[in-house]
């Protein structure tokens, strides 16, 4: 056994990631834990009636609602920017979407947004638009993961 | 806090409130600016990249705001945009956070913010106290020469512009040198402070009382003409006499005041300095005619009058 560094055992073997696509967590557990912690401390405050940030009484629920409510419009804006050859708009929307994804710990989705952002700023709008369907897939996956995370408390 | 992106806005809002602070959230720079103007917050957390008025422009606008009070600015920048950080700090930010905002990092920023805004508040308070002290005479607590010059210049300009009248009265404690010689300088200081405090209590709100020189006081009476000014100053003379501070060399055996009054009339082509000179001439008249009295300025010689 001279290659211990490569892995600790056969049991963890999984399909090798593609060369250009490192494996990413769907939902960053650290980020999720942090949001949960924030949520529960707000609930404590809530019992004293001190906080007004959210609407449903659950920060996590509010966050997922806000995310789900804005992403489809953002994706439509990305498409429209592509159709109108508007690199600035595409860059802005992708940046915005990346921020939301990162805030929720959606690493893969954030990475896709970052790619679109970079492509848009270098004027490669067609390549950027090619990524939109994958972005939508990621969003669907993220959405179920988020819903699961919210209800599993 | 200002962020156009609703998810991070919610997180920052929650993180700020969790720490027991009140948080007002705005979704764009212009709204953020209006809330800043209305609420004068201790801390502004602004996203660097927003459509319209972005975080940098907001920083610059806040720093250019002339109102007193200091707002600690935390700029929120995207990961990997290091040049944004420097640009932001130069635009007026005090600190920065990288997106996605970590509530722990935010908390540490707010601790520093609290310290810095408290220092700024203390500094502003000291500055105001110093400015106030710089206008006061230490012995009598009256306005000093410097504040007289500022106030009189302002009143003169206002009176010229709006066609109003005002009076100045140069007052001098009678035989004060003899008082000091008889009772000592400490007693002299006390007597002067007593006169100053009695005169201040006598005049109307809005009237100014200044220590002009050693034992000279100057009264500035807005909205008074020579006639009504004479009445007011005569009352001041009377209350000082009624203090009954023993002064063997003074008229009637008590400490008294002589005064000369001059008035600014709308349309007069004169300066505050000229007016003071006329009041001083009238004071000389009061001294020459027996002291413990108020004299009006000499009627100006009218051509052909």
How would you sum up this structure, described in words?
- The complex is a heterodimer of chains A (153) and B (305).
- Chain A is an all-alpha fold.
- Chain A has a single domain (25-44, 56-151), classed as Four Helix Bundle (Hemerythrin (Met), subunit A), CATH 1.20.120.
- Chain A has 6 helices and no strands.
- Chain A has helices at 29-46, 59-83, 87-103, 107-121, 125-130, 132-151.
- With 305 residues, chain B is α/β, with parallel strands linked by helices.
- Chain B folds into 2 domains: 6-133, Rossmann fold (3-Layer(aba) Sandwich); 145-296, 2-Layer Sandwich (Alpha-Beta Plaits).
- Chain B has 10 helices and 8 strands.
- Chain B has helices at residues 6-18, 29-39, 55-64, 82-91, 103-133, 145-162, 176-183, 185-202, 226-243, 272-288; strands spanning 43-47, 72-77, 95-98, 166-173, 208-211, 216-222, 257-264, 294-296.
- In chain B, strands 5-6-4-7-8 form a 5-stranded mixed β-sheet, with helices on both faces.
- The longest helix of chain B has 31 residues, at 103-133.
- Chain B starts with 5 loop residues before the first helix and ends in a 9-residue tail after the last strand.
- Chain A binds chain B through residues 31, 34-35, 37-39, 41-42, 45, 50-54, 59, 62-63, 66-67, 69-70, 92, 95-96, 98-100, 102-105, and chain B through 4-8, 10-11, 13-15, 17-18, 20, 23, 25, 49, 51, 78-79, 99-104.
